[in-house]
Amino acid sequence: MFLTEKTYDIDELCRNNMHTHSVFSKCSKPEMVFEDMVKAAEKFGLKTLAITDHSDLHDEINSVGNYRKLKKRLAKMDTDVRVIIGAEMSAYGVGKFAEPYRIDKEIEFCNYSCVHYHLDYWEQPKDRSPRGYAEHMLAVLSALFDTDRADAIAHPFSPCKMKFFTKSENETMLASVTDNELFDIMKKGEDAGCAWELHKSSVLCYPDFYRRFFYVGREAGVHFTVGTDAHHLKDIDTSDFAQSLKEILR
Asked: What is the DSSP string of 148-216?
C-alpha cells in the first residue's frame, strides 16, 4: 500500500522521512525517544515521519507490541506531523521472511530490507561473485513481490552492509544490474503496491548507480520514498540530503 503520493519532485519527497529508528532498535542511540523524534520532525519541517525499527530473526523485538505502545503514546501527542509506526522487516532469502505474515498485516508500514548479508542467518547466493549477489537480490525482490507484504524497499540494492566486498567490487555488482533488469523489477514492485527508497547513505556512497536507479524508476512510473535511516535526532532532518539528491540527479 502506497503511503505517500507519487512524485519526482525532490523537495516534496524529502518532506517525508520514511526510514528512522527509535530506541526499540538496538543499533539506535539513547536520544531516539519517540516523543523527541516527533519534536525533531516538527523542528525540521517534515510532513511525515515513519518509525521503522528492526524486525530480524533472533532479535527478541516484539514488533506488534512496540507498534501498540507507540500508537498509545502518539495518541497523547499534539502534532501536525503525520507519524507512521512501522518496522524494517527482513526478506533474508528467496521466499524467506523473518516475521509471520500476520505480523506484517498488523502494523502500518513494512519497509523491507533484502540486503543485510552481514547477518549470520542471511541466505547467501551459491555464486558469491558480484554478479551472483546482484542476481540473488533480484530473486529475493521478485519473490517478495509475489506477496503483498512490502510497502517499501529499504536501501534497495545497497552494498553498504557487504563488508566482504571492496568498494570496487560493490560498484561492479551494481553496474552488473542492467537497465532492463532494473525496469522489470521496479515495475513489478510498483504493481505489487511497493515503493522504492532513496536511502541517504547508499545514494551518497554510490551516486552513479542511484542516478540510474532514479531515472529508470521514473520511466517505470514507480513510487519513491526518502529515508535517512536515522539513528540520531539530527539525522531526522532531510534538508541536506535533498540538496545532495538534486546535485546527483541533475
From this structure: T--SEEESTT--TT-TTS-HHHHHHHHHTS-HHHHHHHHHHHHHTT-EEEEEHHHHHH-HHHHHHHHHH
